[in-house]
Amino acid sequence: MSQSEVERRQEEAEAHIRATIINELCQVMQKTNLPPMAVLRLATRAIGTIYREMAEAHSGVHPCPCGWRPHYTNDVEVLGMALMTACESHRRDDLRRMRIAGTA
Ligand SMILES: [Zn+2]
């Protein structure tokens, strides 16, 4: 698979996951009246427990045959960085847009 094909598939997957999660978060907020940060924190915790389940399914005596093996410390750092950079990059985009709007 070429690098651009990999990137295209990752972008498609991210768009799909994002659309699904936004839909679910909105439904949960409407049903529970929980504030956005509470719901986002629950979603983040859910990703953490899903990671743990996936890691367990890929370790031990009969691990998943796909070949991926979890490396807890590394993986958690990668997930934490993905969360931080995604939060930061949107803030940077907003700042850039405000600056452009400000100079226009
Ligand atoms: Zn697997």
Describe this structure in words.
- With 104 residues, the protein is mainly α.
- It has two domains: 1-66, no CATH class; 71-104.
- Helices cover 81% and strands 0% of the residues.
- The protein is built from three helices and no strands.
- The chain has helices spanning 3-32, 36-57, 72-103.
- The protein is extended and about 60 Å long.
- The mean pLDDT is 91.
Element string (H = helix, E = strand): HHH
User: The biggest beta sheet, please?
Assistant: none
The number of distinct helices, counting runs of at least 4 residues, comes to: 3
The secondary-structure class comes to mainly alpha
Strand percent estimate: under 5%
Instruction: List the bound ligands.
Output: zinc ion
What sort of overall outline do the alpha carbons produce when their principal axes are compared? extended
The number of domains:
2
Report mean pLDDT, rounded to a whole number: 91
Distance between the termini: 43 Å
Residues in helix, %: over 70%
Low-confidence stretches: none
Number of strands: 0
* Cα radius of gyration in angstroms: 18 Å
User: Quaternary status of these chains?
Assistant: single chain
